Amino acid sequence: MDIFGNSKNSGFLKNPLDTDLQANNFNAYNFTEVHLDELHDNSGTGKIVVHEEFNMTNKRITNMADPVAAKDAVTLSYYENNMPAQINYYDVTGAVTDEQTPISVGIQAGSFNVPREFTCDKVVFYLRNGATAALYTATIYIDGNAVSWSQFPSFVNAGDLVSQDGYFQGGPQTILAGSSITVGANNDATASGLKVALIGTI
Fold first, then answer.
1. How far is Cα of residue 202 from the mean position of the Cα atoms in its chain?
2. Which listed residue, 93, 106, 170, 193, has the most CB atoms within 10 A of its CB?
3. 5-53 tens-digit pLDDT
4. Could you give the strand order of the β-sheet that contains 118-126, starting from the edge strand earlier in sequence?
5. CA-to-CA distance for 199 and 60, rounded, in angstroms?
6. pLDDT, position 60
7. What is the DSSP letter of 163?
8. Domain holding 144: CATH number?
9. How many whole angstroms separate alpha carbon 149 and alpha carbon 70?
10. Does residue 112 form part of some domain?
């Protein structure tokens, strides 16, 4: 019998099919269940391309290979085993002078403590009012110990409000929780409102 219940020799499609079925410009609807070995485009060899939303009705796609190209999908296990490294940035900032009084030479009155251990990558100073000096320099002390610099966090030009980045001699430095930070500076006729930022990661 064919798929319409007619005689096997009627010329209609047979069930099961014994020849290829080519359905150009043919739409099929309301399938309850479809079992396929392969699925191709109209050429019979190309890949199927989804042009609209692909809705799996909350079902799963399983047995996926590990990704090769940048846009390949990944499984949950692959993602969990290959999560990108997380960078936890951590900065500590404090003001060490008042905003308007010109800075005097020596250790400034303000100080602050580091709340947790972290790795300090660089130090930056800020001013409310820029210095008259063409190169104005400040430095920090950690628990009273002077820091050695490979590059000072100096205000390079007169009037600068942000210093260049200051880097520790020997690379990033671990600063312990509770460490006291004080600042030493030169006097200047106009420089005031000095703040310092210790920039790093946990």
1. 15
2. 193
3. 566 555 566 667 676 666 666 777 777 777 777 777 766 677 777 767 7
4. 89-95, 195-201, 118-126, 173-175
5. 44
6. 77
7. P
8. 2.60.120
9. 42
10. yes
Lowest mean pLDDT among 51-55, 106-110, 124-128: 51-55
CB within 8 A of 149, min separation 6: which ones? 139, 166, 167, 168, 169
The mean pLDDT value for 168-173 works out to: 97
Residue for token digits 């312990």? Answer: 176
Average pLDDT, the chain: 87
pLDDT at 63: 80
Alpha helix stretches (DSSP H) within 65-172: 76-81
pLDDT given at position 7: 62
Give the three-state DSSP class for 78: helix
C-alpha angle 61-64-67 in degrees, rounded to nearest 5: 130
Are 185 and 123 in contact by the 8 Å Cβ rule? The answer is no
Per-state percent for the chain, helix, strand, coil, to nearest 5: 5, 30, 65
Higher pLDDT, 171 or 18: 171
Q: Is residue 109 part of a domain?
A: yes
Count how many domains the chain has: 1
What is residue 29's predicted lDDT score, i.e. its pLDDT? 75
Question: Is 54 a member of any domain?
Answer: no
Separation of alpha carbons 181 and 112, rounded Å: 5
What is the domain extent for residue 196?
89-201
Q: Is residue 36 part of a domain?
A: no
